[in-house]
Predict the structure.
Amino acid sequence: MKERSASHIRKLVVTGALGALAVFLGITKLGFIPWFTGISITIIHIPAILGAVLEGPLVGSGIGAIFGLFSMIQANIGPNGPIDLAFRNPLVSVLPRILFPVAAWGIYALVAKWKKIPAVIIAAAAGSVIHTVLVLGMLVLTNGSGILTGGDPAVTVWAVLGAIFAANGIPESIAAAVLSTVVVAAKLGINSANRKSKLNS
């Protein structure tokens, strides 16, 4: 009973801490890496991936929900452009952020049966891609295609989506894989060191 209670407390703490980190990265703009396309690469979604990998899908979704709500609030308070206006809709800003950590966790759980670190790399990269696909997909489904094309009939929404995915989605997945692997590897190393210390004491 005590172990279960401690586990629940740990999950709540991790959700709050990583959720706060996502908000901090957004407020300080440290979560946006300038990129040659003119659209910054975001790493704000990485805490949700870490939460899912380290503590399970509920924690990942909780962190994603915090990230999504922050994104929606920002879009309402101080939008930076026409695309930001679409993020006032929770179907665009919140729902994809709740769902993609579950997918990342599922991939991790499947591959982790083989080896943990490769599982983190694959889950983080795939989770980031799924995040991009879900957000862009919801933009289109909620009539955001006009925003994406700038109202130009000569520009197809699929061409815009393909360009965004190639220029930003792929680099974001690489960044997610690298940063998530570093954090998880460090955690596994600390846990291993603690176990050895207890055995030697």
